[in-house]
Amino acid sequence: MEIINTLKGEHIKELLKNNRRIDTRAFMEMRHVKVKRGVLPQAEGSAQVDLGTTKVLVGIKLMPDDPMPDTPNQGNLITSAELLPLAHPEYETGPPSSESIELARVVDRGIRAGNCIDLESLVLEDKKVWSVYIDLYILNFGGNLFDASTMAAMAALLDTKIPKYENGIVVREERVKSLKIDNIVSSTTFGKIDNYMLLDMNDNEEGMADARVTICTDGTSIRAMQKGLSGSFKPEEIGSLIDVSLNEHEKIKRILEK
What we know:
Oligomer: single chain
Structural class: alpha+beta
Shape: elongated
CATH topology: Ribosomal Protein S5, domain 2
């Protein structure tokens, strides 16, 4: 297997020298995106996003809860990620891995920093608030979980209906209104292999990357960034990637709003 991976890596680098990628895309071209909402009827909101061969399922659950001490007039947002063993040979059952923790944090940070959810609208009576649980499930790994998961989370939030809450009881059969969404964010993840910059790396390219950066934007502002791997980016490289991210946001937003 190690010999096969070495040969594959050499092939990827040779293609890049000739301005080509292993799956024939342009360097700054994202794979085909498919979004399907309402895939989990029992959830308050749900969506599945296919980004190339990467498949992510997201379910949204609302639970009445106590507010956080420092935000008594706001609802809560909790994001988790599960890398299902069926998605990749190296994924295992058990406690959350470092990869799943990082994935959940990156998605959570983008949505939170983007002020996507009107958390003040989630306050209930008797000092109770709604807690919004965003649960990410990786069904198949084909590279770039960050962007696929952010898209799936946003699509699921846009699909979310708030259940009826009366006299301290949740009536889930009655969904009275949509979750108030104030902003839509998207993330774009770039990899660096030698000195070549690539948008939306597939699984083969991720295995060769020296550096990675995820940029989360709402189309006007950069809301969050996450650097990964041991390599680095020059300031001018980050500047050019931000421009690509802002342009890609408009395309992704149109897909999510369909």
